[in-house]
User: Fold this.
Amino acid sequence: MKLDNKIDYSEFLKKLKILDYKKEPWNNFKIPHGLSVSEKKDFWRKKIKETIGKEINGIYLYEKGGDVLYIGKGKPICNRVYKHFRESFEKVSGDTKYNRWHQFFSNEKNTGELTVYWIEINDGNEENSELDRQIIEKIYTRKFKPTFTTKFDAKSTDFWLSKKRKSKSK
Assistant:
């Protein structure tokens, strides 16, 4: 069976009432990214946790100037957002071998004032909720085509290519 690449997931997202990330039930706040805020790490760690909440699991989205930069899922979201904040001015453990997130979030095009949107995805059953987050993250990525997945080219060898090389050599 050939799958039509023109599948529109908008109706699915409309039924969930989460199609437009700029409207409720989505939340948002502005956050600076880049070297200029590196001395305010502690302030922003606290601000992110207070704004998003320490135990909120779900989907988050970065936007700058109307362009969707990145879409991700977090468990909890505040930890991922804080990590990306730090990646805008320093390398962070847990990043890919080639520091792909650091390269992306520290890139001049992706620094300055960004807006983070987030929504809680949690039905009480963690296994189901994680699967829901993965599915919705993929749908949003396909629908909004964030810069990170469509236009970003890491300066070093691409992480995914290095994974393929490793698996072939085994």
Remarks:
- The chain is about 40% helix and 20% strand.
